[in-house]
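Consider the following input, taken from an annotated entry for LysR family transcriptional regulator (Acidovorax bellezanensis).
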Amino acid sequence: MQWTLDQLRQFVLTADSGSFSEAARRLGKAQSAVSTAIALLEADLGLALFDRSRRNAQLTDAGALLLLEARELLRQAQSLDQRAQSLSAGDEAKLSLALDEALPYTAVNALIREIAQRFPNLELTRLNGTATEVTDYVDQERAQMAIHFVRGTISARFDQRHIGTVPQGLFAPSGHPLTRLHSVQRKDLVQYRQLILHAEEVHETAYSPQVWRSDSFYSLAEMVADDLGWAILPVNIATDDTYRKPLQQLDCPSLALPQLSVRMLWCQGWQPSRPAGWIEARFTELLRQIPA
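Applying the prediction step yields:
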């Protein structure tokens, strides 16, 4: 095999343009140079690619089949070149990203789609879990970085950066006695079971003497929908329309719930690459677009 990628390009361009002269014009070469290159390719392959008894560059049956192979080889060569350029620019070949399952679905989906467009040669591993689980993924070096809701302090092993906030609210199932109140007071909350997010070394405030816990915001929302109590939830999770019963947000001015903080987390000493830096900046923008 002595054929070259340049010969394959001239072969494909000639087939696409329909004539040797048009291919030569597009390449800025003499027609004789294109004809010679393709003749050498045919000699090396031992096949006629074009029927020269016709006026235009008409492919032979063998030429039509090999055209498909030539296109694929050129695609692979371009992919190799792009991957090499990406690596030489300092991009990572691989990135493992852990994402809190409770983050806004629309923002996460937009981020993943845009990563594919902006870094087509990046080999991405996406891990999902609770806020605690994604921290463990980084600690276990299964993920290089995580984006999650802040749940207390972190160990000195990690570095972090705040990247945004997500609104939260007080929710009860549709038809619950609390939903009939125009304005809910703390004394009203103590009468019903509170569903609280459970995380190690994090003690959420209990406003009711009756408490159930779960390590997942989605599990809490499902329990609320099953009439098991009320809960403080991210608005994006509570307003999901897939629960058995709709969740209704309660007006409770005395709680004055702050927005949930979102951070990016990684192990000390790891230097975020260009894709990681772009992910941080872009997800920060996407979180700002979420209605308060």
